[in-house]
Design goal:
The complex is a heterodimer.
Chain A (H helix, E strand, L loop, with lengths): L7 H14 L4 H11 L1 H21 L29 H8 L6 E6 L5 E4 H6 L3 E8 L5 E10 H8 L7 E10 L2 E8 H4 L5 E6 L2 E2 L9 E3 L12 E7 L12 H6 L8
Chain B lengths: L16 E3 L3 H27 L2 E2 L13 E5 L4 E5 L2 E4 L7 E2 L5 E2 L15 H28 L2 H6 L8 H12 L14 H24 L2 H6 L2 H6 L2 H29 L1 H10 L1 E3 L9
Classes of the chains: A alpha+beta, B alpha+beta.
């Protein structure tokens, strides 16, 4: 999640600028033409597949991200991406301390659920001090408390055909509400939690209140904030443009963000 | 070479050719030249996304950075510790081909792609990182098993003497390079440079790169202990990249001074012409 990432409109404007530059700087324009060629995009995409396959082979299913002590906490945990979702609906939830917030669990599940924040806090909780790594390069260490995602999935009874978990969010960025997804390995990982507390305080709005995903072995944009729906699906094809996440669909960030 | 090989007419002796670079060295050299260029330029794009470096495990905008490339309303700057230098036009604040002022850290001509795209910079970087890693692993294996390390790069006991090293430094400073048969072998500074790149700098780039991966941190948490945290690894990655750039600059300067045609030809065909010694012998 990034405030530096440009909306698509600006990207297109920049692409136009690049074409305009073609006359003056053929070398640079040539480099960018290579970057944009469909065949090159296909080859570049092989890197992600090699990283995903090798990391899945190398990393134990349940290998934990390092957990730190309280002395290691960042003095201030930098919020990024959306800091305050727009709209009257979210504002009303915030004014009401999110008591009416619901997380819908649907898709390929035996028992669709609609969980309140009270329901979520009543489940067994996990607290972990972990490092958040933004795709941009910075890191912050925070203490998160929440419910392990696999407990919610088990409560809903995920069906056999489900291969991915999709997270729907209440924050709109540009043309769409934020969304992300992960495979069942990360969904069932012991450190994958839906967190409602940061550093022993109720999760601030800038950090994703009332509920955000922690998916500790991947980069920051996978950690969906303002989560209000969880879906179990067999394929990502029908989610957004089919690449599995908001930034994946818009700027071609990797869906597997383990590196 | 023995005197017997000297041609009968000594006015214009045929240059003595030696087979200097075997095929694996030549292939790896040129693949690496392209790979490292792509990795550097896409790496600068990734750096542009957050042009600040830290020591330790964490570091973000509210934490103290030891290196920053930034911009004010009308200037670009580089700050290292408490030392700050104006870099307007090159770093932090520069003008692109259309005359538009940009405030990304590194200018478009130095990055892949030329306009800001962290996503594309990462795709180039993380694919070519594979080329570097696999190529380096194979080449290391070949230098060990194929005798390159033992025969050509191995530093003999006599070469370790400070006097010998200092002598080679002085000779280089005076731009006096070995002639004749001595030119067929690597000098101590060459050996140390190539060993430093192959066995220290490049492995360090790969290891610090992997240390920045949250997935690899779960698999090999000891990487974090070796480098003192993810942000330290990122800093070391950046510093080592510039050490490789420094190697490249000296490398190119030496090739130009020692005879670019002969040097380039030897890295393409393998055959190197020994520069004739003063007495006419090769």
């Amino acid at each position: 999640m990034s405030d530096i990432i440009l909306p698509r409109r600006q990207l297109i404007a920049r692409a136009g600028g690049m074409v305009a530059a073609a006359g003056t700087l053929p070398l640079l324009a040539g480099c960018d033409a290579i970057n944009d060629a469909p065949a090159v995009r296909k080859i570049l995409a092989m890197g992600e597949e090699m990283n995903r396959a090798s990391q899945r082979a190398l990393i134990d299913r349940d290998a934990l991200a390092r957990e730190f002590g309280r002395a290691d906490l960042s003095p201030f945990f930098r919020p990024n991406g959306t800091r305050l979702p727009a709209g009257a609906v979210y504002a009303a939830h915030a004014a009401n301390a999110f008591v009416d917030w619901r997380v819908k669990v649907s898709g390929l599940v035996a028992r669709p659920l609609s969980l309140s924040m009270a329901d979520i806090r009543a489940m067994p909780q996990r607290t972990q001090i972990t490092r958040h790594d933004c795709v941009e390069g910075w890191s912050a260490i925070g203490q998160w408390t929440g419910v392990q995602l696999h407990r919610i999935l088990d409560a809903a009874g995920v069906r056999d055909g489900a291969r991915y978990i999709v997270f729907r969010c209440a924050d709109r960025i540009g043309d769409a509400l934020y969304y992300e997804s992960c495979d069942m390995i990360d969904a069932r990982h012991p450190q994958t939690i839906l967190a409602w507390a940061l550093n022993d305080a109720v999760l601030p709005i800038a950090n994703g209140a009332p509920l955000r995903l922690r998916i500790e072995r991947q980069l920051g944009y996978k950690h969906a904030k303002y989560v209000n729906a969880i879906e179990a699906v067999a394929s990502l094809d029908a989610i957004g443009a089919g690449k599995g996440g908001y930034w994946e669909d818009r700027v071609d960030y990797e869906w597997y963000a383990g590196i | 070479m023995a005197k017997a090989e000297t041609p009968v007419a000594p006015e214009k002796p045929e240059p003595v050719r030696v087979y200097r670079h075997r095929l694996p060295t030549r292939i790896w050299h040129w693949v690496n030249a392209v790979t490292l260029l792509v990795l550097l330029m896409s790496g600068l794009m990734i750096f542009n996304a957050h042009p600040r470096l830290y020591w330790g495990e964490y570091g973000a905008n509210f934490d103290r950075a030891w290196l920053v490339i930034g911009s004010t309303a009308d200037a670009g700057y580089l700050r290292v510790g408490d030392w700050k230098i104006d870099t307007t036009g090159v770093l932090g604040r520069w003008t692109d081909a259309q005359g538009t002022t940009k405030t990304w850290a590194f200018p478009g001509w130095a990055t892949i792609p030329t306009s800001y795209s962290l996503a594309d910079g990462r795709r180039w970087h993380l694919l070519f990182a594979w080329l570097l890693s696999v190529g380096l692993a194979l080449y290391m294996l070949w230098t060990l098993l194929g005798g390159h390390l033992r025969k050509d790069l191995h530093v003999r006991r006599a070469e370790w003497s400070p006097r010998h090293i200092w002598h080679d430094v002085k000779e280089h400073a005076r731009l006096r390079f070995p002639k004749g048969e001595a030119a067929a072998r690597y000098g101590i500074l060459q050996k140390l440079s190539y060993i430093g790149v192959i066995f220290i700098a490049l492995p360090l780039m790969i290891a610090t790169g992997l240390t920045m991966s949250p997935g690899m941190n779960a698999a090999w948490p000891w990487l974090l202990d070796i480098f003192g945290g993810r942000q330290s690894a990122r800093s070391i990655h950046f510093i080592t990249a510039w050490a490789l750039v420094a190697f490249f600059i000296v490398h190119i300067a030496m090739v130009l001074l020692a005879g670019p045609v002969n040097e380039l030809r030897s890295m393409v065909t393998g055959w190197f012409r020994l520069p004739p010694a003063k007495d006419g012998r090769a």
